[in-house]
Design goal:
With 190 residues, the chain is α/β, with parallel strands linked by helices. It has 5 helices and 7 strands; from the N terminus they run E-E-E-H-H-E-H-H-E-E-E-H. A hairpin with a 4-residue loop joins strand 2 and strand 3. It binds zinc ion. Zinc ion (ZN) binds next to loops.
Length: 190
């Protein structure tokens, strides 16, 4: 059983099955709290007692976010490794480094790389596979039904339309393409 994942936005991924894994709301709240505490810090005079206290609060917030994110990633990777034989993802560089799809401020270390390594070892433990699809593979532009490729697709287009009649959530369409490309790579290696 194969599954493809498209990492669309911060903390959220979309699966080729059509499902989404939302980053839990109560985790997002911690990120809002961090933003608040950071604003407070910016108003404190550097070197003052208040500044030091506030700096500690910010650090604690950061740590909590790191832990919550790790927890989320552990649960998600465990459930994927339990349910599928092969998980197809885009190679790290595409979204991790290209910049264009950075996930909003404060979440640059969103841990996509960490997530992939967790997923990889959990799959390996079970004799399963993580298949990385080339980062230049145009997962969002290709129609996952007929294979036709669009020249233009703006980020604002949330629904993928194709002449063949395919009408699909753009992220799901991308996830299906990632899965299909993964299957192709797998077949080549087998
Ligand atoms: Zn089509």
């Amino acid at each position: 059983k194969f599954i493809g994942i498209d990492f669309a936005m911060q903390g959220m991924c979309v699966f080729s099955t059509g499902k989404r894994a939302e980053y839990p709301m109560f985790y997002q709240n911690t990120e809002k709290k961090l933003a608040r505490e950071q604003r407070k810090l910016s108003r404190c005079q550097k070197g003052s007692q208040n500044y030091k206290k506030q700096k500690k609060r910010v650090a604690l917030c950061h740590e909590k976010i790191r832990n919550q994110r790790k927890d989320f990633q552990h649960k998600l990777s465990a459930s994927l490794a339990g349910s599928f034989d092969a998980v197809c993802v885009e190679d790290l560089n595409l979204k991790g480094m290209a910049g264009g799809l950075h996930f909003g401020k404060g979440v640059h270390d969103n841990g996509y790389g960490l997530f992939l390594s967790m997923l990889e070892y959990k799959l390996e433990e079970r004799g399963k596979y993580l298949i990385k699809v080339d980062r230049y593979f145009a997962s969002s532009k290709i129609c996952s039904v007929c294979g036709k490729k669009k020249e233009e697709l703006s980020l604002a287009d949330r629904i993928y339309y194709c002449e063949c009649g395919n009408r699909m959530d753009r992220d799901v369409n991308a996830a299906v393409n990632i899965m299909n490309e993964g299957k192709r790579i797998f077949a080549e290696c087998a």
